[in-house]
Amino acid sequence: MFNKLGSFNRRTFMQVAGGACIANAIRPALAESTSTGHLPLRMGVVVWVEEGKSIDDAVRDAHAMGFQTCQIGFERLTPAVLKPLKAALEKYEIKGTAFSEHGPGERVFDFYRGPKTIGIVPRPLREARINNLKMAADMAAACGIPHIHTHCGFTPEDPNHPLYPETVAAMKKIAIYCKDRGISFLCETGEETPITLRRMIEDVGTGNVFVNFDPANIVMCGKGNPVDAMEVLGPLVRGTHAKDGFLPTSTRQFGEEVAIGKGKVDFPTIFKQLRQANYQGPITIEREIDGPERIKDILQSKAYLEDLLRKTYQ
Q1: What is the pLDDT of residues 157-210, one digit of tens each?
Q2: 256: closest CA among 288, 285, 292?
């Protein structure tokens, strides 16, 4: 959800200059990532569509990379995206597993401006974001996507802080709206500690609020060890982001996101924990850089994670 500089920087999936560049970038990496045999969990990728960009192209590129599923979100969500999104998912036989929504308004992923701009915690942005999450829920239901998900924000650790009950009440509005449409609301890990997230979900109490587990966000926000976090959140995990990163070295900026295997996330242990928790959802890769290097990193990650899944579930 955030780049190494800590500011919002999501791009249309596989956005590079022209189809020839895409093909040239995919071909050698795809050879390394090609897998055979049945996987115990489906593989997916985060697809982010910039305003004015082609939804069909974004979903097509996920298909070309060999993914079965995707989490999908839009830089600017409007009702106009529904018809082309539904058509693209059907055309390329990609299963949407979560509808990702975080707007409207600026989001700055750092320790100073983040608390004022991320999620539904900030009061000035809260109602507009509740409305957008409701719109996302309508679209998810129409497309057969089982979850919506977002960053809730810097939820206070102290449940007596006035922003804490306000955030719980906002989450409850969203959760009830989702429940009426037969879908779940996933909270992405990151800005809050794992125990705060679990407390918040329990306090919402609607039975359809769960966790999108992003281990790198926990590391990059300095909120703990993802392995320890899984002990707290494991039974609530319904979605994942396979992503890696480093702890923050600045008191102002989040840690750096890096390719899987180069950061602090212990994927072998986390996969064992997911199995112990009887997790049945997809493994969704997220890599937040641009250009052909992103494609290479995603496909190499795909090959590594597929092999790790087989070893974990053998």
Answers
A1: 999 999 999 999 999 999 999 999 999 999 999 999 999 999 999 999 999 999
A2: 288
- The upper half-sphere exposure of residue 72, i.e. CA atoms within 13 Å in the direction of its Cβ, equals 33
Q: Where in the chain are the domains?
A: 19-313
Write the pLDDT tens digit of every residue in 204-253: 999 999 999 999 999 999 999 999 999 999 999 999 999 999 999 999 99
Express as a percent the part of the chain with pLDDT over 70.
88
Q: Which among 98, 101, 135 has a CA at the least distance from the CA of 119? A: 101
**Which fold would CATH assign to domain 19-313?**
TIM Barrel (3.20.20)
Tokens read off for 313: 């579930």
Cα–Cα distance for residue pair 64/215, rounded to 1 Å: 26
CB under 8 Å to 271, separation ≥6 — which residues?
308, 309, 312
Say what the pTM is. Answer: 0.90
Strand partners, 150: 187
